[in-house]
Design brief:
This protein is an alpha+beta fold and about 475 residues long. It has two domains: about 350 residues, no CATH class; about 130 residues, no CATH class. The protein is about 50% helix and about 10% strand. The protein has 19 helices and eight strands. The strands form three sheets. A four-stranded antiparallel sheet has the order 6-5-7-8. It has a two-stranded antiparallel ribbon with strand order 1-2. Strand 3 and strand 4 form a beta hairpin. The chain is globular, with a radius of gyration of 24 Å.
Length: about 475
Amino acid sequence: MPDWLGWWSTADYDVAREVLHRGFGALYALAFWGALRQFRPLLGERGLTPVPRFVARTHWLDGPSLFRWRYSDRLLGGCAWCGVLLGASVVVGLPQAGPWWVPMLVFLALWWLYLSLVNVGQTFYGFGWETLLCEAGFLVAFLGSHDVPVPLLVILAARWLLFRLEFGAGLIKWRGDTAWRDLTALDYHHETQPLPGPLSWHAHHMPRWWHRTEVVGNHVTQLVLPWFLFLPQPFPSVAGIAVALTQAWLVVTGNFAWLNWATIVLGVAMVDDGTWAWLGGLAGLPDDAAAATAPEPPLAFVIVVTAVVLLLVVLSVRPARNLASRRQKMNASFEPFRLVNAYGAFGSVTRRRDEIVVEGTLAEHPGPDDWVEYEFRGKPGALDRRPPQVAPYHLRLDWLMWFLPLGHPAGWFEVFLRRLLDADPATLRLLGRDPFEGQAPRSVRALIYRYRFTTPEERRRTGNWWARDLLGVAVDPVQLPRR
């Protein structure tokens, strides 16, 4: 390899390349599988917020998308299946076995197809992990295949992504809510997070000193360790391992779609091959690594990667300024292709958990006992139902239901109630259980309850995970006009 290319590539991150390729390939396959199951009833031709209407009132530069040219539910299905198959091909390593441009084209296709979903997905795709998947997919496209050495510039860009992801989240917490500064945030979070998981009840009832430890650990991981990413090894490896471990705790105590898993993939990718060999030696594993001379990268590969990284450097100016701003934006994109973004989560902690409960009835003149609840797949409902583990799968309807009591605009909810009155099969498949088994109810309504986890004593006595108190009626009974 020419001396002038010695700085450009590295033989220390072969494992990292595999982790980034296969990890994000799996997350793309999962995300597109979710689109197959949820996009059409939420955003399709008869969805709650149809894409054709959205496209008609917005401009291409507001969000470039394949579906601005044409949208149909059939085209959506074809694109989603392509995404599933392309992502799965990366997981099994097919594109990586070819020339350097093959995985590049595969990931650019994944990026463009998913960007096309996100940019017309409106509120149902308005989460930080959507943008993260777009940015990461574009970045790892330029890692090359097994035929070329790992570009050091792309590894450094991945460090910059993880830095913004973690440091941005840490800053938004510290700036946004006194509960993070007085170490009380985790007194509430496990109970009030959007979709608690199977161990959230147990995490909530840990001692207060443990909750303080959780918050301190969060601050260290998100505000201190990210700076290690800019130091020589082994500091980035230490930071990456710490990030992966703390994210694993979030995986087992909540449901945040693929946010935690994407962060784990990035964290593990910070570990260099030497550290993996050292860890393997501690575990008593044989060192089978053989020294190999890195192949010389083709000039075209060098030019493409260098140009892309220079573009990312230019696009990083506004996200970097955002980190330094006291008016820091959370989960923001500064250009329509979502190549370099701002991240953050839980800048404010909800102290109480209010839930919208949707009910229906077959009675023409219902009494109090005639109303039956619809059961959602993930969000709290029945008091004796243990919170399920759904992540890294993303239940978009359930997540949006969490925002309703917080006062977020939700014109889609009125449409959702009408779909229930129609007993629309596609909408009902988004739910965990239809109490009417496909029969159209006469009326539906929405109540608002204050939910809380039961105490250990209440749990032993009743078997319930939740307790609740009725606060009032969110939506009065509605029914279809008589024909």
